[in-house]
Amino acid sequence: MATYNDLTPAEQALVTAFMSSFRQGVGQIAQALNRLETMRRVWEAAVVNPITSLDPGEHIPDSMPGQGAAALMREDVLQIMGAIDLVLSTHNGIESRARYIAVAGLPATMA
């Protein structure tokens, strides 16, 4: 095993460059998780009942015309919200948030 100071100057430069991108990327992940958490709260508070009341196979119109998004079926939305819930329950707990803050700094994890 080596210490950081045992690395060659080229290796240190490589690690430094990577860590800058790494910290920035972790901050962006934390911000994306914030947006997903807000989406989940809106879903649970107001949207889940209307969506689940739709008939199976019912299409929900594209709300983003010109963006190339397709109409979704009720099942698509339910599956994706299930995946979002899994991501949040796995990667957005207190310990994970503390690690993101340690890596990227508090301001970089907020948005």
Model description:
This protein is mostly helical and 111 residues long. It has four helices and two strands, in the order αββααα. It has a two-stranded antiparallel ribbon with strand order 1-2. α1 packs across α2 and α1 crosses α3. The chain is elongated and about 65 Å long. The model has no long low-confidence stretch (mean pLDDT 95).
Strand content: under 5%
- Any idea what the shape is? elongated
Q: Helix proportion of residues, in percent?
A: over 70%
In the sheet with the most strands, the strands line up as 1-2
H/E topology pattern: HEEHHH
* Poorly predicted parts: none
Number of strands: 2
Largest sheet: 2 strands, antiparallel
Number of helices: 4
User: What structural class is derived from the secondary structure elements?
Assistant: mainly alpha
Main traits of this protein?
70% helix; 111 residues; 4 helices; 2 strands; mainly alpha; 4% strand; two-stranded antiparallel sheet
Strand and helix layout:
Blueprint: H1 9-53, E1 59-60, E2 72-73, H2 74-91, H3 94-104, H4 106-109
Helix pairs in contact: 1-2, 1-3
In short:
The chain is mainly α and 111 residues long. It is built from 4 helices and 2 strands.
